[in-house]
Amino acid sequence: MSGFSPELIDYLEGKISFEEFERRREERKSREKDGESASAEENAEDVEAPSSSRKASGKSQSHDETDGETSDGVSKSVHRVFASMLGENEEEEEDEEEEEEEEEEEETTEQPTAGDVFVLEMVLNRETKKMMKEKRPRSKLPRALRGLMGEANIRFARGEREEAIVMCMEIIRQAPLAHEPFSTLAMIYEDQGDMEKSLQFELIAAHLNPSDTEEWVRLAEMSLEQDNIKQAVFCYTKALKYDPTNVRYLWERSSLYEQLGEHKMAMDGYRRILNLLSPSDGERFMQLARDMAKSYYEANDVTSAIEIIEEAFTKHQSLVSMEDVNIAAELYISSKQYDKALAVITDFAGIVLEKKVSEKSPAEEKKDTGPVVEARESQEAVTDNQSHPVAESSAAAVEKVSCCIPEGVPIDITVKLMVCLVHLNILEPLNPLLTTLVEQNPEEMGDLYLDVAEAFLDVGEYNSALPLLSSLVCSERYNLAVVWLRHAECLKALGHMERAAESYAKVVDLAPLHLDARISLSTLQQQLGRPEKALEALEPMYDPDTLAQDANAAQQELKLLLHRSTLLYSQGKMYGYIDTLLTMLAMLLKVAMSRAQVCLISSSKSGERHLYLIKVSRDKISDNDDQETANCDAKAIFAVLTSVLTKDDWWNLLLKAIYSLCDLSRYKEAELLVDSSLEYYSFYDDRQKRKELEYFGLSAAILDKNFRKAYNYIRTVCASVPCKPR
Predict the structure, then answer these.
(1) Taking every pair of C-alpha atoms in the chain, what is the biggest distance, in angstroms?
(2) Burial code of 582-613, b = ≥16 C-beta within 10 A, e = fewer?
(3) 445 with 411: CB under 8 angstroms?
(4) Average pLDDT in the chain
């Protein structure tokens, strides 16, 4: 296959995909076209304009060049194609078509005409022939090779596959733009059972004859049979290029995009389908819009979901169902557009909010703190909550809102109505609605209970939210950590600290890794005078192995240790305080401690189990911690640790640990902590911090009576000021 183009060889050998083959081929075509145009411009400068006497001879000469044959019986046009291999020479084909049209025009003009009508008929006939020619794709197989192509097909029909393959490959070598030999090769390999090879040649044949949309669809289905979804998407894209309004092709391609996880491309295809659907396809439009809105919502693209559902409501109002109302209300509520959600519910669900006006005395008006709203009459929704006093009477006109819900309205829509009323501060119609809600079984409708309760919590109506949350925590199905957390927050806001602490403890039991619940529980226990239980709530959540591998776990643990250290220091428990400080510093200085041959161990030598720093040999360090793994782990969690505490915060934490160790006369450990910190490049590269660490190390060594080490520190300090006498 030395005569074939490189991309064709790579594709047939399976090195590249069909998409890559087409891309490389188009790039090569564009490069060759640019080169030909440049050479044509250079030649145009050297060629003189032909005289009128030479026009006829020039035309006949070009005609001979086009239709002439070489000594081997192959037309010159085939040789030009062979020279460019798979590069199409569209300009030459257009010139040939123009010459044929000119010849037809000359022939028609030679015929006698019988007036303007006859001339018009001839023009129309010529246009009709041209249109028919455009509809029928021209074969790019030269006449000299058509006999060989027929012979190859005959050999294939006789079962002489090898000879047929050789003939087809020879035709491809001489006429690489003809699709017929590729189609025959595809049939041969399909007959042999090699479907992968057959599909390869079918794709090339379709590429050379791209206007056959049904062929592209068939190739897409074959690609799916081979689990090649990307190639199937490519085939559907090719089919849509020549039939862009085919809804079935768009649907299939969008479904494949969803399988590939390309959500945006899939949604773009579905949007095109919506634009192509006729007004009579209202049910199909609504179903597709419904599915698209759900898909956008799951992808957290609420804005696009709202646009789709609004378009559906505008075009097909008569086809809006309760499910559509529920979806639209959910989308508006999730985007906090409660007024629009209320309008959709009242407009399409048959729910009526009415305004009733009553009179009150000024004394009663002062006592009245309930909301007064402006509501639409009859079918109109309530959109504002401003009061309008009547000046003509001494008594004030008070507006009350009542709600009328027809039978058959789903409880989901009723609950969404309640959520909207709560957020719009229209509380008067809620009592009968709440009665309807609590009549439902919380085991089955617990999610609706929680929606209303969270709405009350959002606006600060804790007394209204508490009964609903209490019903949920007593159920079996919704006895969940998230519900207990809401229950605890509600009790805490109402000042029921004891019960709130119990609810927070339940959250910690159900979700031990919930950091906020642990911190809140610890704070409440401290306020209730239970310091031991406050510390118990802040016990470590993760084991050391998890902390070494999971950056998110390290971040959570660091936040917990910060709260724990503050609590321990406030209670005066210095040993526990140092334990938390050393644990946090060991997370940051893990690699530095390994270089300094320092380890953090747990021991009960003082009667209680605490953490201590010790010096170990290099052998034990290498056995326990692989250096490369430690470096990778440190890099993984370093960004997370520094996001919780800045470099200066870590420095202050280090100083607190050194001071605390010295206060407890643990000078040896203070020395080891300084050694580890000097191995930490972020501190060592800071000249001021390095100098302070050296002074800390010198002081700790002297206090520990380690005079040799103190002498080394003094030498280092003196070396840093060479201009002064030593």
Answers:
(1) 129
(2) bbbbbbbbbbbbbbbbbbbeeeeeeeeebbbb
(3) yes
(4) 79
| Tokens matching residue 233 | 């998407």
Q: Are 413 and 349 in contact (CB under 8 A)?
A: yes
pLDDT digits (tens, 9 = 90+) for 61-85: 444 444 444 444 444 443 443 344 3
Residue entry with tokens 């400068």: 45
Mind giving me the DSSP string for 27-90?
HHHHHHHHHHHHHHHHHHHHSPPPPGGGHHHHHHHHHHHHH-B-TTS-BHHHHHHHHHTT---H
Q: Which two tokens stand for residue 227?
A: 């689990």
Cα(503)–Cα(483) distance, integer angstroms: 10
Query: Amino acid identity, residue 469?
Result: L
pLDDT digits (tens, 9 = 90+) for 128-142: 555 444 444 556 788
Does pLDDT of 664 surpass 70? yes
Cβ-count burial 371-381 (b if 16+ within 10 Å, e if not)? bbbebbeeeeb
Return the structure tokens found at 486.
Answer: 């809401």
Burial of 261 (0-12, 13-18, 19+ CB in 10 A): exposed
End-to-end CA separation in angstroms for the chain:
84
Torsion angle, alpha carbons of 110, 113, 117, 120, to 10: 0
Q: Please calculate the CA angle 391-396-402 and round it to the nearest 5 degrees.
A: 125
The DSSP annotation for 570-582 comes to HHT-HHHHHHHHH
How confident is the model over 693-718, as pLDDT tens digits?
989 999 999 998 988 888 888 888 78
Q: Identify the H or E element spanning 357.
A: strand 352-360
Tell me the chain's radius of gyration from C-alpha atoms: 42
Alpha helix segments (H runs only) across 68-142: 76-84, 90-110, 116-135
Kindly give the interhelix angle for 282-298 and 263-276, rounded to the nearest 10 degrees.
160
Do 399 and 354 contact (CB within 8 A), yes or no?
Answer: no
Angle at 548 between CA 544 and CA 550, to 5 degrees: 110
Token readout for 294 is: 């759900």
Predicted confidence (pLDDT) at residue 371 exceeds the cutoff of 80 = no
Q: How far apart are CA 607 and CA 647, in angstroms?
A: 35
| pLDDT tens sequence across 295-324 | 999 999 999 999 999 999 999 999 999 999
Q: Do β-strands 396-404 and 598-603 pair in parallel, antiparallel, or remain unpaired?
A: unpaired
The DSSP symbol for 605 reads T
Q: What is the pLDDT of residues 539-551, one digit of tens each?
A: 989 888 888 788 8
Distance from C-alpha of 157 to C-alpha of 151, rounded to nearest angstrom: 10
> What is the spatial distance between Cα 688 and Cα 90, in angstroms, rounded to a whole number?
74
In degrees to the nearest 10, what's the CA dihedral of 133, 139, 140, 145? Answer: -140
Residue type, 460: G
Helices (H), 261-298: 263-276, 282-298
Q: What pLDDT sits at residue 93?
A: 46
The predicted-structure confidence for 187-221, as pLDDT tens digits, reads as follows: 888 888 888 888 888 888 888 888 888 889 988 99
User: What is the tens place of the pLDDT at every residue in 243-284?
Assistant: 999 999 999 999 999 999 899 999 999 999 999 998 899 999
Distance CA 504, CA 277 (A): 54
Cα(526)–Cα(506) distance, integer angstroms: 17
pTM: 0.68
